[in-house]
Amino acid sequence: MPFYDALVVGGGMIGSAALRHLTLTKPHLRLGAVAPSEPQDWAHHEGVFSSHYDEGRITRMLDPDDVWSRLAEESIGRYGSIEDFSGVSFFNESGFVAVGRDEEGSWLRQVKDSSERRNVSRKILSGEEARSRFYPIHFPDEATVLYQKERAGHISPRKFVRASLKASEKRGADLIDEDAEAVSASASWDEEAGKGWENPSVDGEGVGASESDGRLWDVLLKNGTVVRARRVLVSTGAFTNPRLLNGLRGGSLDV
């Protein structure tokens, strides 16, 4: 029976990124992901159908929420290293334009204020200036346009997932190209609970270990194989097959 210290169930944008982070922070552990590939025949496919089967997601730092903007900045800052290590390019730095009325309480004013607080590089254009720069798009005279030229644009979700999984595989993680049918608590118990899960050391000393009651988890695959793991991260999105979660026995799963 295949056994892992940690197994990610789901190989979409979140699951693939989670696996990549695990390979960076816990490289000494046995890591894997149940990550079925995109079906070739959409019309007759009856298995997993993920949300990343498209080619365009906007990415930028201009946003009314400071926290969202900061998180976006951190993510965008990692694109280059992920592309270089995986050999898969997914980011098109084409820029981003926000358009609206610069009025008190408006969405655009909130974006503008946030960018000033966070010192996000952008240009403020009038409707006339924007029409000249972005012809043939017509911007109203009364519009205010915020233009972020660098570290903004769009990514290919398909290629981002491919890059994340490729990077994880290069660092030793296993990829299981199969659908997961159920996650359940195993009848077996782990005699080495928590081993290898100590937090990164500070000046050579460990800073604590994660809690574990010794429970192991079994993941049933569509082909009948059972994969066992000390920890399972279910990252299967909003349209998860209920059978996957209903298979829990003898334990609970935080959702």
UniProtKB/TrEMBL annotation:
Keywords: FAD, Flavoprotein, Oxidoreductase. The keyword DNA-binding does not apply. Residues 187-210 are annotated as: Disordered. Residues 5-250 form the FAD dependent oxidoreductase domain. InterPro entries: FAD-dep_OxRdtase, FAD/NAD-bd_sf, MTOX. Its cofactor is FAD. GO terms for molecular function: flavin adenine dinucleotide binding; sarcosine oxidase activity. The keyword Flavoprotein applies. Belongs to the MSOX/MTOX family. This is FAD dependent oxidoreductase domain-containing protein.
